[in-house]
Design a protein that fits this description.
It contains three helices and seven strands; from the N terminus they run ααβββαββββ. By secondary structure, it is α+β, with helices and mostly antiparallel strands. It folds into two domains: about 35 residues; about 140 residues, no CATH class. The longest helix is centred in the first third of the chain and has 22 residues. The radius of gyration is 30 Å and the shape is elongated.
């Protein structure tokens, strides 16, 4: 008899809850905003990949846009330049306009400022794209860079805190080196520079470097 009374009470309670839900305009089993305490819903309660860009506040959108690159993550990009070649001589004999550079901006602020020592160039990945092209020659400051940059043009990688520039193609280029965009010993977390000098006209009568880069946050 006691079990039957409990069952009747349970049924009445369920019917009462149903009536209240219908009276409030909610469907049975639904949850309204007033049913949830602030902070009660965490990451485990949210379905993966269910939050869309429009679901977050304008403040959070802005925060995401200026957020620095997370530790261990690698970003990639391209860099280079294509200019008229100087008629005569190696870099030490060039007249004006023999010095060239390409600049790249990081999509995220680097964890630490990039100095000259943090921007490395690998010319061993170069491939000739035409008859008579010559491999770009690295500046002496880049002597250890190919060994430090162990990736490739197809799969660029970089040690933590470094930029590795992988030359894909180029011609009539010498003294190739990576630099900070801040003079002297300074550095910047926002980008870097690839510099070289022309070595005279080749078959294409120009000096150029085409390259990809990778940066890994420390």
């Amino acid at each position: 008899m006691r079990g039957r009374v409990i069952s009747i009470i349970a049924i009445c309670g369920a019917l009462l809850s149903l009536g209240i839900a219908q009276a409030l305009g909610s469907s049975p089993g639904s949850v309204s905003a007033t049913d949830i305490q602030t902070g009660a819903v965490g990451s485990r309660a949210i379905q993966d990949r269910s939050i869309q860009y429009v679901d977050i506040s304008r403040q959070l959108r802005g925060d995401l846009e200026v957020q620095g690159l997370q530790r261990g993550r690698t970003e990639h990009g391209v860099i280079g330049g294509d200019f008229p070649a100087i008629p005569t001589g190696p870099s030490t004999e060039c007249p004006n306009n023999c010095s060239w550079a390409g600049y790249a901006s990081l999509p995220f602020k680097a964890g630490t400022a990039l100095t000259d020592a943090d921007v490395l160039v690998d010319n061993t990945t170069w491939v000739s794209g035409d008859t008579g092209q010559t491999q770009p020659v690295l500046d002496s400051s880049e002597s250890g860079s190919p060994a430090a940059c162990t990736g490739s043009v197809a799969n660029p990688t970089a040690p933590a805190g470094k930029v590795c520039i992988y030359i894909a193609g180029g011609d009539n280029a010498a003294d190739v080196a990576g630099y900070s965009v801040v003079p002297g010993s300074g550095g910047s977390p926002y980008g870097f520079k690839l510099h070289w000098v022309s070595t005279g006209p080749g078959t294409a009568n120009n000096t150029f470097i085409d390259a990809v880069w990778a940066y890994t946050a420390p």
